[in-house]
Amino acid sequence: MPAPTCSACHSPGDRLHACLSCDDFACWRRARPQQQQQQQARSTEPHIVQHLRSSRHQFALDFVHLAVFCLDCSDYVYDAAITAWLLAAQIRWHAALCDSAEPEAKRPRIVSTGADLSPAQTKYLREHGAVQACGGVRGLLNLGATCYLSVVLQALAHNPLVRGWMLSDGHHPSTCRVGRNAQQQQQLKEQAPVACMACELEAALQAFHSGDAAPLAPVGLLRTMWLLRGDLAGYGQQDAHEWLMALLDTLHVGLTENALMGNGGDTGGGAHAHAHSHLHPCACLVHQAFAGVLQSTVTCSGCGNTTHAHDPMLDISLDIPARPALGARAIDASLNEWLETRTERGARNTRRGTGARANASLTRGQHPVLTLHDCLAHYTRAEPLASGAYACSRCGASSGSAVKQLCVKELPPVLTFQLKRFEHTAGARPSAAHAAKVDAYVRLPLLVDMTPYTAAALAAHSQTAAGLRAAAGHATSSTGSALAASVGGIAVHDRTGLDHSGVSRDTPIPVLDGPGGSATLGKRRTDAVHSNPACQYSLFAVIDHIGHLDTGHYTAYAKHRGQWFKFDDAAVTPADIRDVLGLADETRARQGLSAKGRAYMAFYVKTTLDYHDGAPGPMLPNSAGRDSVPPLPPPMAAMGSGNTRIGETGEWIEDAGVVRTRVNPAGDVKVERRGRKKGSTNAARAKQQQQQQIQQQQQQQKKKQMPPPESGEIRPATKKIPHQARHIHSIANDDDDEEEGELEEHADEEEEGEVDYAFGNGRNTNTTSIPEESSDSDGEALWARISKEKPTDLVPMVQPLLPMTDDRLMYVNPSDLNDLSVSSSSMSMSMQFQSQVMNPPSVPKPGARVVAFSVDENYVDDGDEEDEEEEDAEEEEEEEDDDDFDDVSDFN
Amino acid sequence: MLSETGGIREELLKRFIESGERERLQEIMRTKLHTSGWQDRVKDKCQKIVHENADGIEKLTVDDIAEEVTPFARSSVPEDIKAEILEDIRAFIFRALPETDN
């Protein structure tokens, strides 16, 4: 594929920009000052700027960073609409990458929806809501060595998923069946006083965001924890990690008990309520956010039989290795020399003094510093099991050695690391055994890419490694180093049946992840893998421990709206990345001076969020001659909305976010989305009238196959209407806050966009139907609750554009249809997609998921949004509703 | 002689890019730089530049920041990463040279 080149200098290189008014490409290289030696350097401009000036075009787009350059400002500018569109393109690209990296991953890549508030709602909120002062950052009083509690609470409060879910009414004390209010209502005959951790956490978060800046005393949390977990009671110092796990556990119990009671057991989900295994993931916040799956692979060296064992996990506890695994490498001597001379020359040429030069390179000091990656590499290293410990089932050689390797099979949205800083050393007598703290400095990256440590990467790498070695034999690399032939980190079975006992150290089987690794082909595990965007995480909280093991002190750093803060009990101060990561300590460590590493736990959140919405895969119709796949068990509900029930016609209905999935007894899946009303402008309305006619004809045909499309009545089942309406309201806003919180996290990183999505069912019959209009009812639910009316009906919004398969992306932007200026571009884009995928594969796979994106470019990052505490922290994100205000009368 | 080497250089560059090697190495390098903490340091330095800039943030362009941070960024790249990447490039050239023999 020919590389695009700059039209001025023909180099296919640096920072290519595309002119947005013509089809010119130009790079950022400055023109060679031929005759302009006398003039100032400023007269030479980058080629792209030259082009823009000479052709009087205004804008150019940087390829790599997707930033728009404005000629007049001589700088990059940011516009909400174009940024949102670019983000959407990037999300689609990322999704494609994720799919190609893990084609067998069954998780749906559905991103949450935009806020769907009806204009009436918006108006109500504007009139009756009050914008609160910025909250979210509060100190916590130390109630007597409770610094562990403070840090854990801060880490949870700044966890975008937890915060978002909690603030959007995920768990409301008035409806909690476990907490104190419930007890008053229902007179539960409990032996112990009832305490619900979720209520406490919710209260704490509300207090955080209430706008009050005084430190908060987390008395309720402490009391509840003592009640629920007697083993942690007491005024002594506790371990923060243990406390976090206990908190998550009690939270899980509290949430699932509510879900159990809430559903009334009619979905039969009771069996799954308390248990969480990787086969039946629990639907509560804790597990949806924190739970991942670890995979342990044991490979028998004799026959290569590999067995996998899966374990669910809430966090990863990492040992701190003695020395970095990825440390000093054998480098070609001549190259090293050449490099030395070059850097010395370069260093001499800089205008800095020798003092500065000493600090310039990060490897001066020559003491390698441990990083999180080293710990992870150590964690996922291939370790040989003691001989005799493993009996292979296939070849039965129990004396043979085996190799065990850990990796992560499923990554949770929030990844928590604990660095095991305590080591128990046995003394001469058993009573002398004591724990000492491991003080080694470990540097945490701000962004971590977990791709090399996932099971998929491991599998891919072992294959390539085997292939490479087969090709190269055991030839050493061009570096000539002794360890160069080792391929990092993978236990690969050697089918040539070599005798392993006499094998020399540098033979790659079993391979320990060590230094070396030929750099020529990048065979080290961390090199060879293309990073999967789904595995990128960014740091949002760190818990530090200072001092000795039992008498130390905890402090936390967390990121709030892009700004890091240090939380030292009641004292909250802004902090820099330098403090968070302890870079000063790192410099000392590099120089070999003693440096106390303080980081104890680190919390990372996925930068591209994808999570289950719980919709089971669309199933194949029987008429197509394929066996229909039985529906998946119901309880895979979305975060915070365990709302599954059986409707009146025996249909299984499940609400997740603004999506409702119905599975009728025949096994057909219909997915509806509550959406904003489209067609409020005349042109769009006319278009939609035509479409509606076409639609109706199609529906006539479908009537025979599908149950008549319900007008989307909410079937209350056994619940009271206010609760139902409330629940819908909470669902509606559930996702708002998730992505709201998420967007705050990442607005500056520009990794995520707010997206709507549209669904279809899995039927192949629908190929070219066009979205029909729907009336907004999502907002109506809230509106109804506010005005104490019965919520109106849901209407299926969108007929699928295309048959759904898991490797198709569909682009629909319903909100675009309101806005004429953008509608043409979006429709054309969707048409493009349609045309691209007009020839779908004939066999959608069972369990196929639907992925669709659209971008709500009307999202405006308004800083006050999160603080609207009215109506139970409902968030309002639409500023574009100004357009729709004129059409309020159109709503019933 | 000069034109010859010039021609080879261009040819090599073209091959470098079109075979995807440049992208791959860029990705590797990015990862390495990131895991070594270089990226965080440069970010920190950029923040410092923005804070210390006397003209105020309105007048500051990306180019200005880039100009100021480039010497620091260049000099603080860890040497082992430099060495590895250069080795990779050298290996690529070894592989590619026989094909570009004219």
TrEMBL record, chain A:
Superkingdom field: Eukaryota
Protein name: Uncharacterized protein
Originating organism: Kickxella alabastrina
Lineage: Eukaryota, Fungi, Fungi incertae sedis, Zoopagomycota, Kickxellomycotina
UniProtKB/TrEMBL annotation, chain B:
UniProt-recorded name of the protein: Uncharacterized protein
Organism name: Kickxella alabastrina
